[in-house]
Amino acid sequence: MNRKLLSFCMALVLTATLAVPTRMVTKAEVDDTESAVSENVISDNSGSTYIVKKGDYLEKIAKEQLGDSKRWKEIYELNKDQIKNPSMIREGMELKLSADGEDAEVKEDAAEEKAEKVEKTEEAKDDKKDEKVEESEEEKKDEKAEEAKDDKEEKDEKVEESKEEKKDEKAEEAKDDKEEKDEKVEESKEEKKDEKAEEAKDDKKDEKAEEAKDDKEEKDEKAEESEEEDKEEAEAAEEESEEDKEESAEAELQYWAEDSPVAAAIVEYVKDVTDEDSANYIPVEDRIAVFDMDGTLIGELYPSYFEYMLFIHRALYDENYKAPADMKEFAQALEKGIYDGKLPEGNELKHANFAGAAYAGMTPQELKDYAKEFMKSEADGFTNLTRGEAFYKPMVSLVEYLDEHDFQCYIVSGSDRTVCRAIIKDTLPIPENRVIGMSYTMVASGQGDTDGLEYVYSEDDDVILGGELIIKTIKMNKVSAIEQEIGKVPVLSFGNSSGDVSMAQYVVNNDMYESRAFMVLCDDLEREHGNMDKADSMKKTCLERGFMPISMKDDFGTIYGDGVEAVPYGEEEAEEDAAG
User: In this structure, are residues 490 and 468 in contact, taking their beta carbons and an 8 Å threshold?
Assistant: First the structure.
């Protein structure tokens, strides 16, 4: 058939050549060429796409691919057919980034190139006219012979196809007839069974009637007895239903803004990884979430970290403790720096060493009691709030929500481990053995300078704080502590500062399970003493590393609860007021 078509085309060319010896390329033909080129250019310039990688979300993709994170809504609108929740996209999704476009310059070049090709083609035709005239007669003979051969082959094919179709039809009809007969036989068997069953039922009716009469009398007696039991069970069931409703309400996220995309993303993630039928299911033993404490779960702006304010109280205002001169000097510089924003150089390590010395000799329980007492003091910069009450209510609800779904929640803080245990004890459902924090040596009360390898604990001994710093758990030290004390890579991380970035990245790198990292931004300037420079810097880090930012301003329905207001810091600390 292809040869027939080729011969026919060649005949047409020959006829046209003989009828019109020469011709110029018309303007219409050039326009047609430009149009064809234009169409090709347009078809080659279709909209671009992007394959979602692990840790991506729409705001980040918009920033990297379109140059503006605020254009995430354009991507969402183009991909509504596969994105149900703009905060939940999955690795491997192919997302459209823009609609179709054109390139005028490419069209113009392609049109010129096409016009040149038409001219060259016409010249070639003129050069070959004489050759085609001579070849035409022979080709016509060959064409006719070939056409006759093709016609015969086509007829033979049709005859063969007709025979095969008739065979298939007959076979199908025979198959249908057999299936119909089998169905009738089966129906006949079922009808006979039903008849026999009906006869058996009729035979037993009389027997059952007598039995039913006796049973009715017995049931009437039991009905009266069970009526009271049913009432009691109904009341108990109603009470249980109310309790279930309360438990269900407790299991949901509370205190978050109703339209928070972060809250929706967390709920969607938990549903996914706790569903045994999901490809992302995580066994209970591997559902591990790690939380920083200061600035993530509790306030750190009243006016600074709880442990900083506790140390300042110990060194400067505790009448029962006399601080060494160098400790007192540092505490004064630290207090001044907290209020004027100019902290002493190397304050983190200096505080860690001086704090260890300040509490040395206390038992762990005595330090917990000391911290508990300080938690009763007023939070500077707020009304109706003590330091012990300064928990972020949305984050407390989040810990409770994860606990209800069998996540093991850990505190991984740069603050003193013993102090952290005292702070969270009555507020968070996290046992003390899941608290990781800054650690100091502990020794026996009668040990003195004897090495622990040589000293034997006696019946008169107590464990006391030795005061020597073992580890300050911030930055990379958080990762080391998690590996040493948990032994597994968590699947969720929550932090708020540069000290938590290593922990967050460690969690995002988890290659066994779907994992997420979140960072709380201190961007609320009304309900909290926010800092937009720090908030913007952390948001940028989130975009770069694939973390999800939590806006205190937009995602928190409340921070500390009703009745609490942020007010300017006093000129003197509450400790000085109390001492006066």
Answer: no
